[in-house]
Write a structure and sequence with these properties.
six-stranded mixed beta sheet; seven-stranded parallel beta sheet; alpha/beta; 22 helices; single chain
C-alpha cells in the first residue's frame, strides 16, 4: 500500500515536490524510511539472472538466494539490472516488459519509488537488434572525440527510449599490459587520449539524459602479468599521473554522474574497500557528488576472493565505509547481512543514510521521485535500435579507426580487377568484427535460435562485392592446432596476383575467446596456428596485405616484414567489414592512428610508449622494447608536408600561463586526406623521471589536394604538471619542448620553450586540455 493515496497528496509531500532541489527532496524522505526500506534502495536485482549457473560471469550463482520477485521488491528497489541485456528480446516487447516490472515495483512498496534501470552500452545499447558500434580501441584509433560523442548520443537516446536510465560505460582504464584480455575495452595507452575521447563519450550519453558510469576506478588495467583481477603493483605516481587523469577529465569535461569501482587491489588494498580512493580522491579532492556503484559481485568478493572480510556483513561495512553506494548486480551483502550489521552496531546507520542520500538525489534528478512519473516509454511500439542513422555513425567511426601500418611500393589501394586470394580464419567470420561486450557475443551466442539480430557483413562478403575475382581459403581456425588447411591457403595465395591475409582474435568471456574479459594472453603471439599460416602465405612470394582484426596489438616481428602492406582494425563493429573493404580498395582514404603501440617481440613486454629513458632501448639490457609500430602511427594514401613550426611570441612560458605553438600542414598528394597532428611534451630534466614524450594535444585536419592549414595549439602550463617528489602535482620551471609528431616516435619538429617562474602546485581545478585552432590557407599564403 502506498503512503499517498492520490496525486494531490503526493504533490503535497515534500520529497515528491519537483520545485524543491533533489537534495531537499532526499533529505525529506530519508527520515521517513525504515532500515529495510533504506537498504532496498542500495541494491540491484538482475531480473534475467539464471540461478542454475548459466549466467554470463563466474560466481554469479553464488550470489542468488532464490527469493521470489515479490519478496525482493517488497521494501522498494534501487536498481534493475540489464532487463534488455540478459536474453534476446524484441525492443518493443522489452520496453513493455520493463514498464510492467516498474509498475510492480511501485505498487509493492510503501513509497512507490521506481527502480533505476541500467544496461551495458560500451559498443552500443547491449540488446538484441541494436546497432553494434566499434570497440573502444577503435574510438582511440579514430582520434575523433566529436564523432565518439555523436555515437554516444545515439546510444543514449536509444537507452532512454527504452526506459533505461544508466549506462555502464565508458571504460577509462589506460592500457598498461597488452596481454590483459580487456585491452579491447580500453581506448588506448595514453591518459590524455583516453580522457579526451572518454569525456566525449560521457558528454554524448549525459546529454541524452542517461547517467554515464566511469569504469573501472581505478588500477584494473595495471594487473600483474596482464591477468584479470590480478593484484596491481604500482607506485603512487603511476596511479596519479597515468591511471587517474582520464577519470578526472571525464568528470570535469564530460559531467559523468556515476562511477564504478574496479576489482583491483592496489598495494594489497582492494579498491572496493579503499576509502582513500573512493572518498578521499573521488569526493573530497575532486568534488564528485554522484553515485558509486559496485562492479558485479565485488562487495562479496571482499570476502570470497580478497579475504579482507570474514563474512558478508563485514564486506558490506567495508564497502559502504569506503564509499560504494549501490551493490550490483543483485541484492547480497547489502541485503540482510547489512541490516543485521547495522542492528548489531557493527555498521553505523549514518553510512547507509549517506549512500541513500546520493541514490535518492540521482533518482530525483531522473524524475523517479515525481508524482506523475509514468513507466511506459514514449512510442514504445516504434522502437528501432538499428536504424540507418545509427548505422551511418557506426560506419563513419569504423572507417576512421582503421590504421594503415605499412604500404610498401604503394600496393594499396588494391585494384579491384586483380585476382585476389582472401585467406585467414577471420576473413569470413562476421563475429570477428565485434568486441566481447557486444550483445551478439556477450549474450546472443547463448541463444543461437534467435539469430544475430543485425546485419554484419564479413570481410569476405564486403570485399567480394568490390573484387569479383576473389577466392577464399580459411587456412586454419583462430584457436586450436589443426594445420591441415594451411597448404590449401598457401596454394590459393600462390595462384593470385595479391593475397589479403586476415588473422586475429575471437572475442569472448572468461576463456571462451582469445580477447575479452577473462581472456588474457600468455604472450603477444597470434593465437593458435595463425603464425604458421602467416609464414606459409608470406613464403609464396605473392604480395600480401596482412589484415589484423584484433582486440589487442600482436607482435609483428621480422617474420612479418615481408608483408607488402599491414592494416590494423580493432573490432570495428557491425559495418567494419565494409569499412575494411573500402580502405583496402581505396574508396576510403585511411586516417586511423594507433592508440597502442604494436610490439615487435611477443615476449618483450609489458611496456608502452609512456616510459622514461630507461624504459626504452638501452645498452644495459639485451631486451629491446622498441615497437614495430609506435603509438600514434598511421599512413594515408596521400602525403602531407609539415613546415614552419614555431612558437607564437616569447619562448618563455610562465608556470601559471600558456604557450602557443603552430605548424603548417599541406596536402602534397593527389587526393583528399586527413592528417592527425599530435603534440607531445618533452621534459628532459625534472625532479622525478618523466616519460621521454607524452601526448598533450591532437587534432584531425581534413585537407584537399594542395590545401594548407595552420594548426595552433595554445597549451596551458597546467599540462606540464606531474606528481613531484613530495606527492603534490606541480608545474616545475625549466627547459622543455613541445614536439609536433606524426607519431610518438616520428617527431617532425621540436619547439624549445622555457617554463619560468616559481614551482607551482596545481589541483583539481587545473586546465586539462589545450585550445586548438585550424586556419586554412591558400598555397600562396603558405609560401609567403
Amino acid at each position: 500500500m502506498h503512503l499517498e493515496t492520490d496525486l494531490s497528496a503526493r504533490e503535497a509531500t515534500p520529497w515528491r515536490d519537483p520545485q524543491r532541489t533533489p537534495a531537499e527532496r532526499a533529505d525529506a524522505l530519508i527520515p521517513l524510511m525504515t532500515l529495510e526500506e533504506k537498504v532496498a534502495q542500495l541494491v540491484g536485482v538482475w531480473v534475467g539472472a539464471d540461478a542454475s549457473g548459466g549466467g554470463v560471469a563466474p560466481h554469479q550463482a553464488d550470489m542468488l538466494d532464490g527469493r521470489p520477485w515479490e519478496t525482493l521488491i517488497e521494501h522498494g528497489l534501487g536498481q534493475l539490472t540489464r532487463p534488455f541485456g540478459t536474453a534476446p528480446v524484441d525492443p518493443a516487447a522489452g520496453a513493455r516488459s520493463l514498464a510492467e516490472a516498474q509498475k510492480q515495483i511501485v505498487a509493492a512498496s510503501r513509497f512507490g519509488i521506481p527502480a533505476q534501470v541500467h544496461e551495458e552500452c560500451l559498443t552500443g545499447f547491449a540488446t538484441w537488434r541494436a546497432t553494434v558500434y566499434p570497440a573502444p580501441l577503435s574510438w582511440g584509433a579514430s582520434f575523433d572525440p566529436e564523432l565518439v560523442e555523436e555515437m554516444a548520443g545515439r546510444i543514449g537516446r536509444s537507452l532512454r527510449a527504452a526506459g533505461v536510465h544508466q549506462g555502464l560505460a565508458p571504460v577509462l582504464d589506460v592500457t598498461r599490459d597488452y596481454r590483459w584480455g580487456r585491452t579491447e575495452e580500453t581506448i588506448g595507452e595514453d591518459p590524455y587520449l583516453v580522457g579526451s575521447v572518454g569525456a566525449a563519450y560521457v558528454r554524448g550519453l549525459e546529454r541524452a539524459g542517461v547517467v554515464a558510469t566511469l569504469k573501472h576506478f581505478v588500477g584494473y588495467s595495471a594487473s600483474r602479468g596482464g591477468r584479470n583481477l590480478a593484484p596491481a603493483p604500482m607506485g603512487p605516481r603511476e596511479l596519479a599521473d597515468v591511471l587517474l587523469p582520464p577519470f578526472e577529465m571525464a568528470l570535469r569535461l564530460g559531467g559523468a554522474r556515476s562511477v564504478m569501482h574496479s576489482y583491483a587491489e592496489i598495494d594489497g588494498v582492494p579498491v572496493a574497500a579503499d576509502e582513500s580512493l573512493l572518498t578521499g580522491v573521488l569526493r573530497d579532492a575532486w568534488g564528485f557528488s554522484g553515485t558509486v556503484v559496485a562492479d558485479y559481485f565485488a562487495v562479496r568478493f571482499l570476502q570470497t576472493l580478497h579475504g579482507v572480510a570474514a563474512h558478508p556483513g563485514e564486506a558490506a561495512g567495508l564497502a559502504l565505509r569506503a564509499g560504494i553506494d549501490v551493490e550490483l548486480p543483485n541484492v547480497d551483502a547489502y541485503g540482510a547481512p547489512l541490516v543485521e550489521a547495522v542492528r548489531s552496531g557493527a555498521v553505523d546507520e549514518a553510512l547507509v543514510d549517506r549512500a541513500l542520500r546520493r541514490v535518492l538525489i540521482q533518482k530525483a534528478e531522473l524524475g523517479l521521485l515525481d508524482a506523475d512519473w509514468q513507466p511506459v516509454p514514449d512510442a514504445a511500439a516504434e522502437l528501432h535500435f538499428d536504424d540507418p542513422e545509427n548505422q551511418s555513425v557506426a560506419l563513419r567511426l569504423a572507417r576512421e579507426s582503421i590504421v594503415l601500418l605499412r604500404n610498401t611500393d604503394h600496393i594499396l589501394p588494391l585494384a579491384t580487377d586483380r585476382r585476389v586470394a582472401l585467406v585467414g580464419p577471420v576473413a569470413d567470420d562476421p563475429m570477428a568484427m565485434l568486441g566481447c561486450y557486444s550483445f551478439p557475443l556477450h549474450v546472443g551466442v547463448q541463444h543461437p535460435e534467435h539469430g544475430i539480430g543485425v546485419e554484419i557483413p564479413s570481410l569476405r562478403e564486403a570485399l567480394g562485392r568490390l573484387c569479383p575475382q576473389l577466392t577464399y581459403q580459411p587456412g586454419c581456425t583462430v584457436t586450436g592446432g589443426d594445420t591441415s588447411g594451411i597448404a590449401a591457403a598457401a596454394a590459393a595465395a600462390a595462384d593470385a596476383d595479391v593475397c589479403v591475409l586476415a588473422v586475429g582474435d575471437r572475442a569472448g568471456l572468461f576463456g571462451r575467446g582469445t580477447s575479452g574479459e577473462g581472456c588474457d594472453a600468455a604472450d603477444l603471439s597470434l593465437p593458435g596456428v595463425q603464425p604458421e599460416l602467416v609464414r606459409a602465405v608470406l613464403a609464396t612470394g605473392t604480395p600480401v596485405v596482412l589484415v589484423l582484426l584484433t582486440g589487442r596489438p600482436y607482435a609483428l616481428g621480422p617474420e612479418t616484414d615481408a608483408a607488402a602492406a599491414v592494416v590494423q582494425a580493432f573490432f570495428p563493429g557491425q559495418l567494419g567489414g565494409q569499412a575494411l573493404a573500402e580502405v583496402i580498395t581505396g574508396a576510403v582514404n585511411p586516417s586511423g592512428r594507433l592508440p597502442v603501440s604494436v610490439p615487435r617481440d611477443a615476449g618483450g613486454m609489458p611496456t608502452t610508449y609512456l616510459s622514461p629513458p630507461l624504459g626504452h632501448r638501452t645498452q644495459v639490457s639485451s631486451v629491446d622494447p622498441t615497437p614495430a609500430f609506435p603509438f600514434g602511427h598511421g599512413l594515408s594514401y596521400t602525403t602531407f608536408e609539415w613546415t614552419n613550426a614555431a612558437v607564437a611570441g616569447s619562448a618563455d612560458w610562465a608556470t601559471d600561463g600558456e604557450a602557443s605553438v603552430y605548424i603548417d600542414i599541406r596536402n602534397t598528394g593527389p587526393r583528399a586526406g586527413t592528417e592527425v597532428v599530435q603534440l607531445y611534451l618533452h621534459d628532459p630534466v625534472a625532479q622525478t623521471t618523466r616519460p621521454v614524450v607524452r601526448l598533450v594535444g591532437f587534432t584531425r585536419v581534413d585537407l584537399a589536394p594542395g590545401e594548407t592549414a595552420r594548426v595552433t595549439f595554445t597549451v596551458p602550463a597546467d599540462l606540464a604538471s606531474f606528481t613531484g617528489l613530495h606527492g603534490r602535482r606541480i608545474v616545475e620551471p625549466g627547459e622543455v619542448q613541445l614536439r609536433f609528431g606524426r607519431s610518438s616516435r616520428d617527431i617532425v619538429a621540436a619547439v624549445p620553450l622555457r617554463l619560468v617562474g616559481g614551482e607551482r602546485e596545481v589541483g583539481h581545478d587545473r586546465r586539462l586540455q589545450p585550445e586548438v585552432q585550424i586556419d586554412r590557407r591558400s598555397t600562396r599564403e603558405a609560401n609567403a
